[in-house]
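## Example pair
The file below holds two records. Each record gives the amino-acid sequence first, followed by its structure token line.
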Amino acid sequence: MRHQKKTTAAALVVLLTLVFAVSTQAGERKRLSFELEAGPVWQSKNDVRIPGNKGTEFSFKDMTGEGPYAAGRFTFVWDFKERHGLRFIAAPLRVEGTGTLTQPVSFAGGNFAAGVSTKGKYKFDTYRLGYRWLFYDKNAWQLRGGATLLLRDAEIKLEQTGVTATDSNVGVAPLLNFTADWAFANRWTATVDVEGLAGGPGRALDLALKVRYDLTDNWSVGGGYRTLEGGVDTDDVYNFSWFNYVFASVGYRF
């Protein structure tokens, strides 16, 4: 796991180096942008059963509470051609809390009693690299579509006195992406941003509604709402969750 994180960081450094090298020849048009989001997140649903074919299904939300919990996201965009661009997203998600289970639970090889103080940890960090094609650009509208490769680093952990069980998973999944930007007033832009895919044993949906105000030609501030829903149902893992975010953002373009 540690080696994989070092490899991811090294790949990002190489990508940024190439980007800055190319940006010196990009001309006046702003092709690079960074955005940082931060705000609270609530879990509306988080049902877990591990293993998926033998474990006991329980609600992680009911055990730890709805929240809010702190969340953030970093986005980097490089439009390397007039209508073609890449987008990198780092979106960590951590939920931790202490509560009680309403029934005895068999989880990841451990047996947990009902009515006993139980500590839970839920991690679902994603790192995404997406390609986007600008296929419509007129009348204050810009529409983009493409595909994303998502790397997930997930972990669910339960702890009681004398009992600890953890299930972790690292994997890759493809997504489709779509973005609609509407410059509805001077310096104001509304955005609908979607990444997701459904099929096979699972599904994923990341939908955001955002508003941005350009403070200067480079700096911007904004805010919005995001919903993250999905899960998987296999013999190894059953987990379907639904998270809702409210966030503020700051961005820089050059």
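Second record, same layout:
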Amino acid sequence: MVANSQVGWRGIVGLLGEFAGLCTIFVLIVTVAEGWQEHAQAQWPTTMARVEKCGLRRTSSGRRNGYYIDCRLSYEVGGAEFVARLYSRTAPAPEVWQYPPNQIGPLQEWLDKHPQGTKITVHFDPGNHGKAVPIESEQLPGRPRTPNNLRLLRIAAISCAVLLVIARIGSGTQNR
């Protein structure tokens, strides 16, 4: 009976380790793709843009209500006027339990610093002048994503390694 429970325990830990390994591969692919995109965008030419309209928009998905920044910018490239939209990450509504608390605070701070008419520097896509992203110092909350992706990648990889080592150690103790 003891051997069967150990096999079950090791099997479950091994499966969790393999699942964490698959998660690690997925997070790695997303991190590389988003990191490459952010790197490419940082190489785009820059121009001054004007904040036309910025505000918090409410979104709801199921029972979770939240807000995100929806910002409209205008700028000129080569004598032509272009408009781009910027969006932040979504933060839970203040009435929703959240940890850490007040996740909407950074969004409101960004909006307070960028009222209508504010000038900000943006990188614009040389192949599609209607696509722009703020320079690093002007980024919306939750952007760029690569630093958070790297943290998640580290957690997934460590979890995978620890679980697989535990499963292997468990199998080594049974063989004695």
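Notes on the second record: The chain has one domain: 2-174. The chain has three helices and six strands.
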